[in-house]
User: Which sequence fits this backbone?
């Protein structure tokens, strides 16, 4: 669930030129993408055969006993490490540059652990979309819920700020079981998987907002709602500012600053992680950021990146290192990935 706003006018004329993160588009009132109705599945036909098979796998994984599910996905970590060569190269580059103080064996351990966490993501998605809600909730724990409740009591909307950990779907599940929260997401091109993810998320989440409808997200915050937002991806320089992240100048989305500036919402950092010792998913909610945003965009984005970095360092193997986070470079700088 990701919201990326670029230039946006507060007067909401008929059309706004908006940077959606993935591309530049003009969103008009008469041309709004609709989230597919979760109650109407696509037809079962030969064209959708493999998609329905994928849904069947997710359903079986979600309904299987948790211990059996963990056993089934465990080999996928090692398998993906060896088969996903391009992603492995990207992840290794990211980890080497972000943890230069560690030895090669320690960095390799983070890399292999990252692929094991990615394999577990498949199971977490299956649980969130398919398993009985009460059974999934029993695997979770929340720390700092009062921080979110205190922010909600202010009555000015709450932006729940997180990062792309491998337990991101589980984080959304936990959050939405504690409060009515909306998420902005990308509509999948595959109609079967789009239907299944919306069907699964509708069991526990609030609104699902198409990323092509950013005005709905802005209005939700202005009306005092809660929005879940993960800004730590690289969508180019147009909607970003270069600030440090793990000591690297990183294109960081301006929406993290602009959303609170536009709506007056509170910003509450949230981070989910998996505790292997207890097989428990822990969601930590931090106190709302004070004096945020300020007039200094660079300082605000640097502050947010520092918070994310500190949380990632607590469980580095659970971060989405396979993403090309440092793809966009300052002018004149050599490419990060070669």
Assistant:
């Amino acid at each position: 669930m990701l919201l990326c706003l670029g230039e946006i006018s507060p007067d909401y004329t008929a059309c706004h030129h908006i940077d959606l993160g993935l591309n530049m588009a003009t969103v008009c009132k008469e041309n709004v993408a609709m989230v597919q109705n979760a109650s109407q599945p696509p037809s079962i036909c030969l064209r959708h055969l493999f998609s329905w098979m994928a849904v069947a796998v997710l359903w079986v994984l979600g309904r299987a006993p948790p211990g059996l599910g963990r056993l089934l996905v465990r080999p996928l970590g090692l398998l993906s490490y060896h088969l996903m060569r391009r992603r492995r190269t990207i992840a290794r580059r990211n980890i080497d540059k972000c943890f230069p103080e560690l030895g090669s064996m320690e960095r390799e351990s983070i890399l292999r652990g990252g692929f094991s966490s990615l394999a577990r993501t498949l199971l977490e998605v299956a649980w969130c979309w398919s398993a009985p809600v009460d059974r999934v909730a029993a695997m979770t724990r929340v720390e700092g819920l009062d921080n979110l409740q205190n922010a909600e009591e202010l009555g000015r909307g709450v932006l729940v700020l997180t990062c792309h950990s491998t337990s991101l779907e589980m984080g959304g599940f936990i959050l939405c079981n504690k409060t009515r929260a909306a998420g902005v997401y990308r509509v999948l091109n595959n109609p079967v998987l789009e239907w299944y993810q919306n069907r699964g998320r509708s069991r526990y989440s609030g609104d699902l907002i198409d990323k092509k409808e950013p005005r709905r997200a802005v209005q939700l915050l202005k009306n005092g709602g809660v929005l879940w937002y993960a800004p730590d991806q690289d969508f180019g320089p147009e909607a970003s500012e270069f600030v440090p992240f793990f000591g690297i100048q990183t294109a960081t989305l301006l929406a993290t600053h602009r959303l609170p500036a536009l709506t007056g919402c509170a910003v509450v950092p949230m981070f989910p992680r998996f505790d292997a010792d207890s097989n428990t998913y822990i969601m930590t909610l931090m106190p709302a950021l004070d004096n945020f945003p300020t007039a200094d965009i660079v300082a605000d984005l640097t502050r947010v990146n520092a918070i994310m970095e500190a949380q990632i360092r607590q469980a580095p193997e659970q971060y989405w290192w396979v993403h090309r986070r440092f793809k966009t470079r300052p002018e004149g700088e050599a490419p990060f990935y070669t």
In short: Residues 1-37 have pLDDT under 50 and may be disordered. The chain has one domain: 50-318.
